[in-house]
C-alpha cells in the first residue's frame, strides 16, 4: 500500500495487515460494547434486588429512570452494532488482490 511515517520510523502496511487491523478493531469494539451492556444488566439486577448489597427498595420513579437509561443505551449500542456489521460486510466483500501492486516491465 503505502509507507506511513509516524515520528522517525516509517510503517509499511500491506493490504492483508490493514484488513487484520480492521478486524481486530471491530472485535475490540464488540468487546467494549458487551462490557457496557453487562454493566447495565448488573444495574438492573441490583435495582431489582437480585444482586447482594441493596439495603433499601428502589422507588418506582428510579426504576423508570433506569429503564429509560437502559433503552437509550441499547439504542446507541444497536446503532453501533449496525455500523460494525456494515464495516465487516465491506471488509468481507473487498476484493483480494494478488500479485504485484506496481507496474512491472522494462524501465525506460
What does this entry look like structurally?
The chain is mainly alpha-helical and 108 residues long. It has one domain. 63% of the residues lie in helices and 9% in strands. The protein contains two helices and two strands. The protein has a two-stranded antiparallel ribbon with strand order 1-2. A hairpin with a 2-residue loop joins strand 1 (2-6) and strand 2. Helix 1 (15-48) packs antiparallel against helix 2. The longest helix has 34 residues, at 15-48. The chain starts with a strand and ends in a 15-residue tail after the last helix. The model has no long low-confidence stretch (mean pLDDT 85).
Overall SS class = mainly alpha
**Proportion of strand residues:** 5-15%
Residue share in helices?
55-70%
Query: Order of strands in the sheet with the most strands?
Result: 1-2
In short:
With 108 residues, this protein is mainly alpha-helical.
Task: Considering the chains and any ligands shown, give keywords for the structure.
108 residues; mainly alpha; two-stranded antiparallel ribbon; 9% strand
Amino acid at each position: 500500500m503505502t509507507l506511513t511515517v509516524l515520528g522517525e520510523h516509517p510503517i509499511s502496511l500491506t493490504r492483508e495487515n490493514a484488513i487484520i487491523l480492521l478486524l481486530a478493531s471491530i472485535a475490540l469494539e464488540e468487546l467494549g460494547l458487551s462490557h457496557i451492556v453487562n454493566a447495565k444488566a448488573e444495574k438492573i439486577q441490583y435495582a431489582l434486588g437480585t444482586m447482594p448489597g441493596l439495603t433499601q427498595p428502589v422507588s418506582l420513579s428510579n426504576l423508570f429512570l433506569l429503564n429509560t437509561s437502559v433503552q437509550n443505551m441499547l439504542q446507541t449500542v444497536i446503532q453501533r452494532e449496525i455500523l460494525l456489521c456494515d464495516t465487516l460486510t465491506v471488509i468481507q466483500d473487498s476484493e483480494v488482490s494478488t500479485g504485484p501492486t506496481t507496474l512491472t516491465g522494462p524501465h525506460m
